[in-house]
Design goal:
Elements lengths: L1 H17 L3 H4 L2 H38 L5 H25 L11 E7 L4 H20 L3 E9 L5 E9 L3 H5 L4 E7 L10 E11 L14 E6 L15 E6 L4 E5 L5 H27 L16 E6 L4 E4 L4 E3 L2 H4 L5 H20 L1
Parallel strand pairs: 4-9
Antiparallel strand pairs: 1-3, 1-5, 2-3, 4-5, 6-7, 7-8, 9-10, 10-11
Length: 354
């Protein structure tokens, strides 16, 4: 571990040195690339520097123990420093785990009402609100690019992007089937009903990711928007549907004000979908698990239940339960997401030690 940490420190110092050179600073692309690398290493380097300082302090405390006048103080100090050392070692183990290259990216989310008719669509709307409230709590922004409203409320389908540094690292565990148990507002007999909505989470694709799309492989349809989008949106042919013919991947964008904006947004989402398909294919060919070991990432996998009568949320993948459904559905997802991240790190550490 120390060898890897020393190599990381040397790399960090080398990049710092490069960023002082005039030829690098005059090259915007290179400066951006180096700055990104530096930021990715910063937490590990800072933690390692703290670790080295603690090791040095331990050695000094061990010498002080030999002094009769300072022995008692030194022993207490040594115990505190040893605890710090163990804690820092655990942090460093986690920091040295292989990074998901998509973690820093924005996230594309699609939610669809599934089993349960109108109630499933209403629940899809609840999930949309939950994720957007969470985004607001984190200081992220979001943009809806396509939506189909349910006849009794909510959405039969809603697609949106959450933008913010590290958004994907927090929300990548959300793909799957979400189940709700409650008495629907559409139920006149007061019976408990179980409905589901599916969530698909993908990283937004940066320009530096090589996803080649042949224009001849695209069918682009222009039509009039049907959703609510403000004055002008529903009165012009501005909605765009792009079909990628080789994969039969269809992307629709109708919530922007102009045809050009809708087309640009649709192309971004198409790239995200093709990138997701590419990653999945690579993993299947190599016999690998999904990027996150928490679940498969498949839209059909049942991952979580929201039980309203008991105010309970249970994540079935890690056996996590909280009796604060009201807070969770209002966007307070920190406890669940932190539990998923901790379990994912634990499994990765166990896998790396085998």
């Amino acid at each position: 571990m120390i060898e890897r940490l020393e190599a990381t420190l040397q790399k960090y110092q080398h990049i710092e040195q490069e960023l002082t050179k005039e030829e690098v600073l005059s090259d915007i692309t290179k400066t951006k690339e180096y700055s990104k690398e530096l930021a990715a290493l910063e937490d590990t380097v800072n933690c390692y520097k703290k670790y080295k300082k603690v090791i040095s302090d331990i050695q000094e405390a061990e010498e002080m123990v030999k002094d009769p006048e300072l022995s008692e103080f030194a022993k207490e100090e040594l115990k505190s420093l040893t605890d710090q050392k163990e804690k820092l070692e655990q942090e460093l183990e986690i920091l040295l785990l292989p990074k998901d290259p998509n973690d820093s990216k924005n996230v594309v989310i699609e939610i669809r009402g599934a089993a349960g008719g109108d109630e499933a669509n209403i629940f899809a709307g609840d999930l949309f609100r939950m994720y957007t409230r969470y985004a607001e709590r984190k200081g992220f922004s979001y943009n809806v690019y396509n939506s189909i409203e349910g006849t009794a409320g909510g959405f039969s389908q809603i697609e949106f992007i959450i933008k913010g540094e590290g958004a994907y690292s927090l929300l990548k565990y959300e793909s799957g089937s979400h189940r709700v148990q409650r008495v629907p507002v559409t139920e006149s007999n007061g019976r408990l009903q179980t409905s589901t909505a599916t969530v698909l989470v993908m990283p937004e694709v940066d320009d530096d990711v090589d996803i080649v799309i042949n224009p001849n492989d695209l069918r682009i349809d222009i039509y009039r928007s049907s959703g609510c989008g403000g004055q002008g949106v529903n009165t012009t042919d501005s909605a765009v549907r792009i079909t990628h013919l080789p994969t039969n991947t269809v992307v629709t964008c109708q919530n922007e004000r102009s045809q050009i904006q809708n087309k640009e947004q649709a192309m971004k989402v198409l790239k995200a979908r093709l990138y997701e398909q590419q990653l999945q294919k690579q993993e299947e060919e190599q016999g690998m698990m999904r990027r996150s070991k928490i679940g498969t990432g498949d839209r059909a996998e049942k991952i979580r239940t929201y039980n309203y009568p008991q105010n309970r949320v249970t994540d079935h993948r890690i056996g996590f339960t909280t009796k604060q459904l009201d807070r969770v559905i209002d966007g307070d997802l920190d406890d669940i997401i932190n539990a998923l991240i901790t379990e994912d790190q634990k499994r990765k550490m166990e896998g790396s030690s085998e």
